[in-house]
Amino acid sequence: MGKALIIGAGGVAGVAVHKCCQNPEVFEEICIASRTKSKCDALKKACEEKYGVGEGKTKITTEQVDADHVDELVALINKVKPDIVMNIALPYQDLTIMDACLETKTNYMDTANYEPPETAHFEYSWQWAYREKFEKAGITALLGSGFDPGVTGVFSAYAQKHYFDEIEYIDILDCNGGDHGYPFATNFNPEINIREVSAKGSYWEDGHWVETEPMEIKREYNFDGVGMKDMYLLHHEEIESLALNIKGIKRIRFFMTFGQSYLTHLKCLENVGMTSIEPIEFEGHQIIPLQFLKAVLPDPASLGPRTVGKTNIGCIFRGKKDGQDKTYYVYNMCDHQECYKEVGAQAVSYTTGVPAMIGAMMLMTGKWNKLGVHNIEEFDPDTFMEALNKFGLPWVEDFNPTLVD
Ligand code: NDP
What is the value of pTM for the model shown? Predict the structure, then answer.
Protein backbone atom coordinates (compact mmCIF):
# COMPACT_ATOMS: atom_id res chain seq x y z
CA MET A 1 0.00 0.00 0.00
CA GLY A 2 2.64 2.59 0.91
CA LYS A 3 5.71 3.94 2.60
CA ALA A 4 6.24 5.49 6.05
CA LEU A 5 9.15 7.55 7.30
CA ILE A 6 9.65 6.84 11.01
CA ILE A 7 11.63 9.47 12.90
CA GLY A 8 13.23 8.23 16.13
CA ALA A 9 14.72 4.85 17.02
CA GLY A 10 14.11 4.63 20.78
CA GLY A 11 11.87 2.36 22.84
CA VAL A 12 8.55 3.38 21.27
CA ALA A 13 9.82 3.66 17.69
CA GLY A 14 11.32 0.16 18.03
CA VAL A 15 7.89 -1.29 18.79
CA ALA A 16 6.26 0.70 15.97
CA VAL A 17 8.85 -0.66 13.52
CA HIS A 18 8.10 -4.25 14.60
CA LYS A 19 4.38 -3.60 14.25
CA CYS A 20 4.80 -2.12 10.74
CA CYS A 21 6.73 -5.27 9.79
CA GLN A 22 3.84 -7.37 11.12
CA ASN A 23 1.57 -5.44 8.76
CA PRO A 24 3.42 -5.52 5.41
CA GLU A 25 0.28 -5.15 3.25
CA VAL A 26 -0.03 -1.57 4.55
CA PHE A 27 3.63 -0.82 5.30
CA GLU A 28 5.30 -2.04 2.12
CA GLU A 29 8.29 0.10 2.92
CA ILE A 30 9.56 1.99 5.96
CA CYS A 31 12.53 4.26 6.42
CA ILE A 32 13.82 4.58 10.01
CA ALA A 33 15.66 7.88 10.50
CA SER A 34 17.10 9.17 13.73
CA ARG A 35 19.92 11.18 15.22
CA THR A 36 21.97 8.05 15.95
CA LYS A 37 21.90 5.97 12.76
CA SER A 38 23.41 2.88 14.41
CA LYS A 39 20.18 2.48 16.42
CA CYS A 40 18.17 2.53 13.16
CA ASP A 41 20.51 -0.07 11.64
CA ALA A 42 20.21 -2.31 14.71
CA LEU A 43 16.41 -2.14 14.47
CA LYS A 44 16.50 -2.93 10.76
CA LYS A 45 18.72 -5.94 11.40
CA ALA A 46 16.52 -7.26 14.24
CA CYS A 47 13.34 -6.92 12.17
CA GLU A 48 14.83 -8.41 9.01
CA GLU A 49 16.00 -11.41 11.02
CA LYS A 50 12.62 -11.81 12.68
CA TYR A 51 10.25 -11.12 9.78
CA GLY A 52 12.42 -11.93 6.75
CA VAL A 53 13.19 -9.93 3.62
CA GLY A 54 11.90 -9.98 0.05
CA GLU A 55 8.51 -10.43 -1.56
CA GLY A 56 5.60 -9.67 0.78
CA LYS A 57 7.86 -8.35 3.55
CA THR A 58 8.27 -4.75 4.67
CA LYS A 59 11.35 -3.26 3.01
CA ILE A 60 13.43 -1.31 5.56
CA THR A 61 15.92 1.47 4.88
CA THR A 62 17.70 3.73 7.38
CA GLU A 63 18.93 7.33 7.41
CA GLN A 64 20.57 9.79 9.79
CA VAL A 65 18.68 13.00 10.54
CA ASP A 66 18.70 15.76 13.11
CA ALA A 67 15.01 16.49 13.36
CA ASP A 68 15.65 19.85 15.02
CA HIS A 69 16.48 21.17 11.54
CA VAL A 70 13.66 21.69 9.05
CA ASP A 71 16.01 21.80 6.03
CA GLU A 72 17.48 18.37 6.88
CA LEU A 73 13.98 16.97 7.30
CA VAL A 74 12.75 18.44 4.02
CA ALA A 75 15.73 16.96 2.16
CA LEU A 76 15.07 13.57 3.78
CA ILE A 77 11.34 13.61 2.98
CA ASN A 78 12.08 14.59 -0.63
CA LYS A 79 14.53 11.72 -0.87
CA VAL A 80 12.34 9.05 0.78
CA LYS A 81 8.98 10.33 -0.57
CA PRO A 82 6.87 8.74 2.19
CA ASP A 83 3.07 8.75 2.37
CA ILE A 84 3.33 9.67 6.04
CA VAL A 85 5.92 10.88 8.56
CA MET A 86 5.61 9.10 11.90
CA ASN A 87 7.16 11.35 14.52
CA ILE A 88 8.34 9.04 17.31
CA ALA A 89 11.30 11.17 18.36
CA LEU A 90 10.73 13.56 21.27
CA PRO A 91 8.07 16.25 21.78
CA TYR A 92 10.73 18.93 21.12
CA GLN A 93 10.78 17.94 17.43
CA ASP A 94 7.02 18.18 16.78
CA LEU A 95 7.05 21.65 15.21
CA THR A 96 10.12 21.21 13.01
CA ILE A 97 8.70 17.95 11.69
CA MET A 98 5.29 19.57 11.10
CA ASP A 99 7.01 22.41 9.23
CA ALA A 100 8.82 19.92 7.01
CA CYS A 101 5.57 18.03 6.37
CA LEU A 102 3.89 21.27 5.35
CA GLU A 103 6.68 22.18 2.98
CA THR A 104 6.61 18.73 1.33
CA LYS A 105 2.82 18.24 1.63
CA THR A 106 3.16 14.98 3.57
CA ASN A 107 0.80 13.57 6.21
CA TYR A 108 2.06 13.71 9.81
CA MET A 109 1.42 11.87 13.08
CA ASP A 110 2.94 11.89 16.57
CA THR A 111 2.52 10.43 20.05
CA ALA A 112 3.11 13.44 22.30
CA ASN A 113 2.34 17.15 22.06
CA TYR A 114 4.90 19.88 21.58
CA GLU A 115 6.96 21.00 24.53
CA PRO A 116 9.59 23.73 24.25
CA PRO A 117 12.94 22.34 25.51
CA GLU A 118 13.55 25.33 27.78
CA THR A 119 10.16 25.23 29.61
CA ALA A 120 8.62 22.14 31.21
CA HIS A 121 5.18 22.94 29.88
CA PHE A 122 3.15 21.22 27.22
CA GLU A 123 -0.07 22.26 25.55
CA TYR A 124 -1.69 21.90 22.13
CA SER A 125 -1.83 25.60 21.18
CA TRP A 126 1.44 25.46 19.21
CA GLN A 127 0.28 22.51 17.10
CA TRP A 128 -3.34 23.65 16.78
CA ALA A 129 -1.96 26.87 15.26
CA TYR A 130 -1.15 24.75 12.14
CA ARG A 131 -4.80 23.78 11.52
CA GLU A 132 -5.48 26.11 8.62
CA LYS A 133 -2.07 25.63 7.01
CA PHE A 134 -2.45 21.84 6.97
CA GLU A 135 -5.98 22.09 5.62
CA LYS A 136 -4.88 24.44 2.85
CA ALA A 137 -1.94 22.17 1.99
CA GLY A 138 -4.39 19.23 1.64
CA ILE A 139 -2.69 17.13 4.33
CA THR A 140 -3.56 15.66 7.72
CA ALA A 141 -1.78 15.82 11.07
CA LEU A 142 -2.93 13.18 13.55
CA LEU A 143 -1.94 14.32 17.05
CA GLY A 144 -1.34 11.98 19.95
CA SER A 145 -1.53 8.43 18.59
CA GLY A 146 0.10 6.60 21.51
CA PHE A 147 -1.79 5.12 24.46
CA ASP A 148 -2.32 8.17 26.59
CA PRO A 149 -2.79 10.34 24.62
CA GLY A 150 -4.01 8.05 21.90
CA VAL A 151 -6.03 4.99 22.82
CA THR A 152 -7.63 6.97 25.68
CA GLY A 153 -9.02 9.38 23.04
CA VAL A 154 -10.19 6.47 20.86
CA PHE A 155 -11.88 4.90 23.92
CA SER A 156 -13.61 8.25 24.54
CA ALA A 157 -14.83 8.53 20.95
CA TYR A 158 -16.03 4.90 21.11
CA ALA A 159 -17.89 5.48 24.38
CA GLN A 160 -19.49 8.61 22.96
CA LYS A 161 -20.49 6.89 19.71
CA HIS A 162 -21.88 3.64 21.12
CA TYR A 163 -22.87 4.04 24.75
CA PHE A 164 -23.73 7.61 25.73
CA ASP A 165 -25.91 10.53 24.71
CA GLU A 166 -23.75 12.66 26.93
CA ILE A 167 -20.50 11.88 28.81
CA GLU A 168 -20.22 14.00 31.95
CA TYR A 169 -17.17 12.55 33.72
CA ILE A 170 -14.03 10.86 32.48
CA ASP A 171 -11.34 9.39 34.74
CA ILE A 172 -8.29 8.14 32.87
CA LEU A 173 -6.39 5.56 34.93
CA ASP A 174 -2.84 4.66 33.93
CA CYS A 175 -1.43 1.83 36.01
CA ASN A 176 1.98 0.30 35.57
CA GLY A 177 2.17 -2.74 37.82
CA GLY A 178 5.55 -3.66 36.36
CA ASP A 179 8.66 -4.25 38.47
CA HIS A 180 12.09 -3.79 36.85
CA GLY A 181 14.04 -4.45 40.03
CA TYR A 182 15.84 -1.07 40.05
CA PRO A 183 15.23 1.33 42.95
CA PHE A 184 14.64 4.10 40.40
CA ALA A 185 14.23 4.07 36.62
CA THR A 186 11.69 5.50 34.20
CA ASN A 187 9.75 3.45 31.67
CA PHE A 188 10.11 5.93 28.86
CA ASN A 189 12.48 8.79 28.10
CA PRO A 190 13.59 9.86 31.63
CA GLU A 191 13.80 13.54 30.76
CA ILE A 192 10.24 13.70 29.38
CA ASN A 193 8.92 11.45 32.16
CA ILE A 194 10.44 13.45 35.03
CA ARG A 195 9.35 16.77 33.52
CA GLU A 196 5.81 15.38 33.36
CA VAL A 197 5.56 14.01 36.88
CA SER A 198 7.32 16.85 38.69
CA ALA A 199 5.00 19.45 37.15
CA LYS A 200 1.88 20.74 38.92
CA GLY A 201 -1.20 18.57 38.54
CA SER A 202 -4.44 19.78 37.02
CA TYR A 203 -7.85 18.62 35.94
CA TRP A 204 -10.71 20.05 33.92
CA GLU A 205 -13.92 20.93 35.75
CA ASP A 206 -16.93 22.99 34.72
CA GLY A 207 -15.15 24.68 31.84
CA HIS A 208 -11.85 25.53 33.50
CA TRP A 209 -8.57 24.05 34.75
CA VAL A 210 -8.18 23.35 38.46
CA GLU A 211 -4.50 23.31 39.41
CA THR A 212 -2.99 21.15 42.19
CA GLU A 213 0.46 20.79 43.69
CA PRO A 214 2.52 17.93 42.20
CA MET A 215 1.17 14.58 43.51
CA GLU A 216 -1.27 16.41 45.83
CA ILE A 217 -4.29 14.23 45.00
CA LYS A 218 -3.89 10.54 45.76
CA ARG A 219 -6.36 7.67 45.36
CA GLU A 220 -6.21 3.89 45.60
CA TYR A 221 -7.61 1.62 42.92
CA ASN A 222 -7.86 -2.13 42.51
CA PHE A 223 -6.69 -2.76 38.93
CA ASP A 224 -7.66 -5.89 37.03
CA GLY A 225 -4.54 -8.01 36.49
CA VAL A 226 -2.44 -5.87 38.86
CA GLY A 227 -4.21 -5.40 42.21
CA MET A 228 -4.38 -2.46 44.60
CA LYS A 229 -2.19 0.53 43.69
CA ASP A 230 -1.72 4.13 44.81
CA MET A 231 -2.37 6.58 41.98
CA TYR A 232 -1.83 10.32 41.74
CA LEU A 233 -3.57 13.04 39.76
CA LEU A 234 -1.38 14.51 37.00
CA HIS A 235 -1.85 17.08 34.29
CA HIS A 236 -2.03 15.20 31.00
CA GLU A 237 -2.32 16.41 27.45
CA GLU A 238 -5.42 14.54 26.30
CA ILE A 239 -7.50 16.35 28.93
CA GLU A 240 -7.08 19.54 26.88
CA SER A 241 -8.40 18.09 23.62
CA LEU A 242 -11.09 15.89 25.19
CA ALA A 243 -12.47 18.94 27.01
CA LEU A 244 -13.12 20.44 23.55
CA ASN A 245 -14.24 17.32 21.71
CA ILE A 246 -16.51 15.53 24.20
CA LYS A 247 -19.83 17.30 24.31
CA GLY A 248 -21.36 18.10 27.70
CA ILE A 249 -18.26 17.12 29.64
CA LYS A 250 -18.16 18.32 33.26
CA ARG A 251 -14.89 16.88 34.55
CA ILE A 252 -11.84 15.02 33.23
CA ARG A 253 -9.09 13.72 35.49
CA PHE A 254 -5.95 11.71 34.84
CA PHE A 255 -4.36 9.40 37.41
CA MET A 256 -1.07 7.50 37.19
CA THR A 257 0.24 4.90 39.62
CA PHE A 258 3.63 5.33 41.30
CA GLY A 259 5.36 3.11 43.82
CA GLN A 260 6.79 4.52 47.05
CA SER A 261 10.40 3.89 45.98
CA TYR A 262 9.92 5.92 42.78
CA LEU A 263 8.37 8.82 44.71
CA THR A 264 11.02 8.84 47.43
CA HIS A 265 13.84 8.89 44.87
CA LEU A 266 12.11 11.58 42.82
CA LYS A 267 11.67 13.80 45.88
CA CYS A 268 15.32 13.38 46.81
CA LEU A 269 16.50 14.14 43.25
CA GLU A 270 14.27 17.23 43.21
CA ASN A 271 15.56 18.36 46.59
CA VAL A 272 19.18 18.21 45.46
CA GLY A 273 18.43 19.99 42.17
CA MET A 274 18.97 17.03 39.81
CA THR A 275 15.60 17.44 38.07
CA SER A 276 16.23 21.08 37.16
CA ILE A 277 16.24 22.14 33.49
CA GLU A 278 18.19 25.34 34.21
CA PRO A 279 21.72 25.06 32.72
CA ILE A 280 24.61 25.09 35.23
CA GLU A 281 28.36 25.45 34.80
CA PHE A 282 30.26 22.19 35.49
CA GLU A 283 34.02 21.90 34.91
CA GLY A 284 33.94 24.44 32.13
CA HIS A 285 30.82 23.00 30.44
CA GLN A 286 27.20 24.11 30.54
CA ILE A 287 25.11 21.14 31.58
CA ILE A 288 21.41 20.70 32.32
CA PRO A 289 21.05 18.63 35.52
CA LEU A 290 18.02 16.68 34.23
CA GLN A 291 19.88 15.72 31.04
CA PHE A 292 22.84 14.59 33.13
CA LEU A 293 20.47 12.54 35.28
CA LYS A 294 19.07 10.94 32.11
CA ALA A 295 22.59 9.91 31.16
CA VAL A 296 23.15 8.05 34.45
CA LEU A 297 19.72 6.40 34.70
CA PRO A 298 19.02 3.04 33.04
CA ASP A 299 18.03 3.39 29.38
CA PRO A 300 14.28 2.59 29.28
CA ALA A 301 14.99 0.28 26.33
CA SER A 302 17.18 -1.84 28.65
CA LEU A 303 14.32 -2.49 31.10
CA GLY A 304 12.57 -4.94 28.78
CA PRO A 305 14.28 -8.17 29.83
CA ARG A 306 13.98 -7.46 33.57
CA THR A 307 10.46 -6.03 33.87
CA VAL A 308 7.72 -8.36 35.09
CA GLY A 309 4.03 -7.66 35.71
CA LYS A 310 1.31 -5.88 33.79
CA THR A 311 0.10 -2.46 32.79
CA ASN A 312 -3.59 -1.61 32.93
CA ILE A 313 -4.65 1.64 31.23
CA GLY A 314 -8.20 2.73 30.55
CA CYS A 315 -11.02 5.21 31.02
CA ILE A 316 -14.05 5.25 33.29
CA PHE A 317 -16.95 7.20 31.78
CA ARG A 318 -20.08 8.40 33.53
CA GLY A 319 -22.97 10.11 31.80
CA LYS A 320 -26.46 9.65 30.42
CA LYS A 321 -28.06 7.29 27.93
CA ASP A 322 -31.79 7.60 27.15
CA GLY A 323 -32.23 9.74 30.27
CA GLN A 324 -30.64 7.09 32.55
CA ASP A 325 -27.31 7.28 34.42
CA LYS A 326 -24.71 5.10 32.77
CA THR A 327 -21.17 3.99 33.67
CA TYR A 328 -18.63 2.35 31.37
CA TYR A 329 -14.99 1.33 31.92
CA VAL A 330 -12.82 0.20 29.03
CA TYR A 331 -9.19 -0.78 29.52
CA ASN A 332 -6.28 -2.77 28.19
CA MET A 333 -3.98 -5.03 30.20
CA CYS A 334 -0.54 -5.66 28.80
CA ASP A 335 2.08 -8.05 30.15
CA HIS A 336 5.68 -6.77 30.20
CA GLN A 337 7.28 -10.17 29.58
CA GLU A 338 4.89 -11.08 26.76
CA CYS A 339 5.82 -7.79 25.05
CA TYR A 340 9.48 -8.49 25.52
CA LYS A 341 9.13 -11.94 23.97
CA GLU A 342 7.30 -10.49 20.98
CA VAL A 343 9.21 -7.31 20.17
CA GLY A 344 12.06 -7.01 22.68
CA ALA A 345 10.51 -4.09 24.61
CA GLN A 346 8.59 -3.58 27.86
CA ALA A 347 4.87 -2.81 27.95
CA VAL A 348 5.12 0.99 28.24
CA SER A 349 6.92 1.19 24.89
CA TYR A 350 4.62 -1.51 23.51
CA THR A 351 1.37 0.21 24.50
CA THR A 352 2.61 3.38 22.74
CA GLY A 353 4.22 1.81 19.66
CA VAL A 354 1.20 -0.30 18.67
CA PRO A 355 -1.23 2.66 18.47
CA ALA A 356 1.45 4.69 16.66
CA MET A 357 1.46 2.06 13.91
CA ILE A 358 -2.36 1.85 13.89
CA GLY A 359 -2.75 5.64 13.64
CA ALA A 360 -0.37 5.73 10.68
CA MET A 361 -2.27 2.83 9.12
CA MET A 362 -5.57 4.74 9.45
CA LEU A 363 -4.15 7.63 7.43
CA MET A 364 -2.29 5.47 4.91
CA THR A 365 -5.36 3.37 4.12
CA GLY A 366 -7.53 6.50 3.85
CA LYS A 367 -9.87 5.22 6.60
CA TRP A 368 -9.18 8.52 8.33
CA ASN A 369 -8.97 11.33 5.80
CA LYS A 370 -10.00 14.60 7.46
CA LEU A 371 -7.66 17.35 6.31
CA GLY A 372 -6.06 19.70 8.83
CA VAL A 373 -4.68 19.11 12.34
CA HIS A 374 -6.79 16.75 14.45
CA ASN A 375 -6.68 14.97 17.78
CA ILE A 376 -7.40 11.28 17.67
CA GLU A 377 -10.88 11.41 19.21
CA GLU A 378 -12.09 13.50 16.26
CA PHE A 379 -11.99 10.42 14.00
CA ASP A 380 -14.34 7.42 13.82
CA PRO A 381 -13.02 4.98 16.46
CA ASP A 382 -14.42 1.64 15.23
CA THR A 383 -11.66 0.48 12.86
CA PHE A 384 -8.99 1.60 15.33
CA MET A 385 -10.69 -0.39 18.11
CA GLU A 386 -10.73 -3.50 15.88
CA ALA A 387 -7.06 -3.00 15.07
CA LEU A 388 -6.17 -2.80 18.78
CA ASN A 389 -7.55 -6.32 19.22
CA LYS A 390 -5.72 -7.55 16.15
CA PHE A 391 -2.31 -6.01 16.84
CA GLY A 392 -1.77 -6.91 20.49
CA LEU A 393 -3.75 -4.49 22.68
CA PRO A 394 -7.12 -6.19 23.28
CA TRP A 395 -9.55 -4.24 25.43
CA VAL A 396 -11.97 -5.23 28.17
CA GLU A 397 -15.32 -3.62 28.94
CA ASP A 398 -16.93 -3.32 32.38
CA PHE A 399 -20.39 -1.77 32.73
CA ASN A 400 -20.37 -1.75 36.52
CA PRO A 401 -16.88 -0.60 37.56
CA THR A 402 -15.72 0.70 40.93
CA LEU A 403 -15.65 4.49 40.62
CA VAL A 404 -12.88 6.86 41.75
CA ASP A 405 -14.19 9.35 44.37
P1 NDP B 1 13.53 7.47 23.56
O2 NDP B 1 14.32 8.46 24.28
O3 NDP B 1 13.72 6.01 23.84
O4 NDP B 1 13.71 7.66 21.98
C5 NDP B 1 13.70 8.92 21.36
C6 NDP B 1 14.32 8.76 20.00
O7 NDP B 1 14.25 10.02 19.34
C8 NDP B 1 15.79 8.37 20.06
O9 NDP B 1 16.04 7.43 19.05
C10 NDP B 1 16.49 9.69 19.79
O11 NDP B 1 17.75 9.59 19.17
C12 NDP B 1 15.54 10.32 18.81
N13 NDP B 1 15.76 11.77 18.76
C14 NDP B 1 15.83 12.65 19.79
N15 NDP B 1 16.11 13.87 19.34
C16 NDP B 1 16.24 13.76 17.99
C17 NDP B 1 16.53 14.68 16.96
N18 NDP B 1 16.76 15.97 17.21
N19 NDP B 1 16.59 14.22 15.70
C20 NDP B 1 16.36 12.91 15.42
N21 NDP B 1 16.07 11.99 16.35
C22 NDP B 1 16.01 12.42 17.63
O23 NDP B 1 11.99 7.88 23.77
P24 NDP B 1 10.72 6.92 23.74
O25 NDP B 1 10.81 6.01 22.58
O26 NDP B 1 10.49 6.38 25.10
O27 NDP B 1 9.55 7.99 23.46
C28 NDP B 1 9.30 8.46 22.14
C29 NDP B 1 8.11 9.40 22.15
O30 NDP B 1 6.94 8.73 22.63
C31 NDP B 1 8.29 10.62 23.06
O32 NDP B 1 7.79 11.75 22.39
C33 NDP B 1 7.41 10.30 24.25
O34 NDP B 1 6.94 11.47 24.89
C35 NDP B 1 6.30 9.56 23.57
N36 NDP B 1 5.49 8.71 24.47
C37 NDP B 1 4.13 8.75 24.34
C38 NDP B 1 3.34 7.97 25.14
C39 NDP B 1 1.87 7.94 24.90
O40 NDP B 1 1.20 7.06 25.46
N41 NDP B 1 1.29 8.80 24.10
C42 NDP B 1 3.91 7.11 26.19
C43 NDP B 1 5.36 7.05 26.17
C44 NDP B 1 6.11 7.86 25.36
P45 NDP B 1 19.10 9.31 20.01
O46 NDP B 1 19.10 7.83 20.15
O47 NDP B 1 20.20 9.82 19.16
O48 NDP B 1 18.97 10.03 21.32
Answer: 0.95
